Amino acid sequence: MARLALVLVDCDGGGHGRYDQATKLDVIAPALHAARSAGVKVVYLHNAPGGEGGPRNVHRELHGLREGKERLGPPGWKPLRPSYLPELAPTELEPEFQKAHQNGFRDTALDAYLRSWDVDSLVLVGFSLKSCLYHTAWAAQERNYRVIVLRDATCPPGAKEFPDTLDPSLEEGGWTRHVLLRLLETNVGYTATSRDWLDACRAVHALFPRT
Predict the structure, then answer these.
(1) 31 half-sphere exposure, CB direction, 13 A CA radius
(2) At residue 11, what are phi and psi to the nearest 5 degrees?
(3) CATH of region 4-52+84-207
(4) What is the pLDDT of residues 50-79, one digit of tens each?
(5) pTM, whole model, 2 decimals?
(6) Cβ(201)–Cβ(35) under 8 Å?
(7) Dihedral over alpha carbons 58, 63, 68, 72 (to 10 degrees)
(8) What is the pLDDT of residue 211?
(9) Running DSSP on this structure, what letter comes out for residue 42?
């Protein structure tokens, strides 16, 4: 556990009616508190608040213009502490890294921070499975970290699917989630459930109680 970190990817924000609300409260929050009780380091990643660059930034096209939206806004390079649900808020001792890309290692000090603590294994939770969580997992593996994604601590079954990829016959609710999880398991690392994680943390806490 001393060489392990729980990484929360884009778990900020909140509000009723969001697709990720139940996952944050019912899955990620218990996983976070279990990590703290077992002495696991916790790290937060969050997005720059819009304005990823200028008019020629490709993210503006891919995630804005082609969907009829404009993403240009106040520059996102200014330091920002986003708002969190109380159950997911970082402590003063837990680092937060602001990213401007899907890959949480790109242009951040995340890698240097983890190596300074001799961390070599990461448990990833957060959003979204087909975007920042997925790309951060790949980047971690490329930097020789052992990667475990908690597959129920991200987009719920059927969420973030295209209409033509929805498939209620699949456990994952659709082909996008199905394929991404298989790619992670095949080429990046491992997946587990939040129940697996809670059981592991409780076992460690029972053996090595923390005051």
Answers:
(1) 29
(2) -100, 15
(3) 3.40.50.850
(4) 667 788 888 888 888 998 988 887 777 788
(5) 0.92
(6) yes
(7) -60
(8) 54
(9) E
- The amino acid at 102: Q
Rounded to the nearest 10 degrees, how much is the dihedral formed by the CA atoms of 48, 79, 85, 201?
90
Residue 121's H or E segment, with its range, is: strand 121-126
Residue type, 53: G
**Sheet of 146-150: strands edge to edge?**
96-99, 41-47, 4-9, 121-126, 146-150, 190-192
Q: What is the mean pLDDT of residues 87-102?
A: 94
Strand partners, 47: 99
28 and 11 Cβ atoms separated by less than 8 Å: yes
Residue ranges per structural domain of the chain: 4-52+84-207
Q: Give residue 76's identity as a one-letter amino acid code.
A: G
Query: For residue 23, how many other CB atoms are within 10 A of its CB?
Result: 22
What lies within 8 Å, CB to CB, of 121 at 6+ separation is 3, 4, 5, 145, 146, 147, 148
pLDDT value for 71: 81
